[in-house]
């Protein structure tokens, strides 16, 4: 069921080219609020027109059954069936070598400026980054919503269990790059640093007016990084075009900590096949060693299971 969301707007977590020391400011905003919006002007090498065209072709192929890696309605979490007949709300594996536009998407994923922000937000050196996921969130074929959740903490967790997990480093950066204006992400700022309140714990899964919630409004070209364990949900309008690139990058410091979050999407089944041969040499070299770390994670982790297999 999709319900109307009533929200408050905030602008405290926006970073632009005029922001003094934008990397530090972005890190402070993410730590404080659990999310930060980066201006399109910070990423001048993104080719939005080309990305829009390629993303539109991918969405069309996915809806018609010509691209098997999809997020299908009404399932919220992996694994998803490969049958698009009930509609889709996402496209998986943009970097898969069988995607005709995988090199274009790779240029945005391995963009030097994006990687600098990822490293700054994680708190690691550029050379410690690890390839993880690059997917796409699209207009659903029917109105659709995700329940309130944290990506790596089940709803059944006690307050003590939440705090124990939230006290550990995140070891990754997760972002949405909007190719069209996007107001689908709803979250509670600051909830990444605390256990749920009684009101949050007692709320209905699709509560339309969670205390303190906001909607993250992105203009085309803006990037929103957010803590994946912030209390959040998605509300998706079938009447509004949506093409939002949804990625994550990790760090070698994570060890196997990120294995389930990443490998449950199936990326380990094909990552070793892509040599990124169409990228320019410096970017290709970086992409190759970041990919090799992902392949190593897959080879060492075995069966990682799923966060919420039946939802």
UniProtKB/TrEMBL annotation:
Taxonomic superkingdom: Eukaryota
UniProt-annotated stretches for the region Disordered: 1-21
Gene3D superfamilies: q2cbj1_9rhob like domain
Comp. bias intervals (Low complexity): 1-19
InterPro entries for this protein: Phytyl_CoA_dOase-like
PANTHER family linked: PHYTANOYL-COA DIOXYGENASE FAMILY PROTEIN (AFU_ORTHOLOGUE AFUA_2G15850)
The name this protein goes by in its record: Uncharacterized protein
Species this chain originates from: Didymella rabiei (Chickpea ascochyta blight fungus)
Lineage, top ranks: Eukaryota, Fungi, Dikarya, Ascomycota, Pezizomycotina
């Amino acid at each position: 069921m999709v319900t109307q969301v009533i929200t408050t707007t905030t602008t405290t977590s926006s970073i632009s080219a005029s922001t003094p020391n934008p990397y530090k400011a972005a890190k402070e905003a993410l730590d404080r609020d659990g999310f930060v919006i980066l201006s399109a002007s910070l990423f001048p090498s993104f080719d939005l027109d080309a990305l829009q065209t390629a993303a539109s072709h991918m969405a069309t192929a996915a809806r018609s059954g010509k691209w098997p890696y999809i997020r299908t309605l009404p399932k919220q979490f992996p694994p998803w069936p490969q049958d698009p007949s009930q509609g889709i709300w996402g496209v998986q594996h943009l970097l898969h070598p069988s995607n005709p536009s995988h090199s274009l998407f790779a240029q945005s994923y391995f963009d030097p400026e994006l990687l600098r922000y990822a490293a700054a937000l994680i708190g690691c050196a550029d050379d410690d980054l690890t390839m993880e996921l690059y997917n796409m969130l699209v207009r659903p074929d029917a109105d659709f919503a995700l329940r309130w959740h944290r990506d790596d903490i089940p709803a059944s967790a006690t307050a003590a269990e939440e705090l124990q997990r939230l006290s550990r480093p995140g070891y990754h950066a997760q972002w949405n790059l909007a190719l069209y204006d996007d107001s689908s992400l709803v979250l509670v700022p600051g909830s990444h640093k605390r256990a749920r309140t009684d009101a949050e714990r007692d709320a209905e899964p699709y509560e339309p007016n969670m205390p303190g919630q906001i909607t993250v409004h992105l203009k085309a070209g803006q990037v929103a990084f957010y803590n994946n364990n912030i209390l959040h949900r998605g509300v998706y309008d079938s009447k509004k075009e949506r093409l939002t690139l949804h990625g994550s990058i990790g760090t070698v410091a994570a060890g196997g900590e990120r294995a389930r979050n990443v490998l449950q999407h199936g990326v380990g089944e094909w990552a070793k096949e892509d040599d990124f041969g169409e990228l320019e040499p410096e970017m290709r070299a970086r992409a190759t060693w970041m990919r090799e770390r992902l392949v190593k994670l897959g080879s060492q982790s075995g069966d990682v299971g799923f966060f919420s297999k039946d939802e």
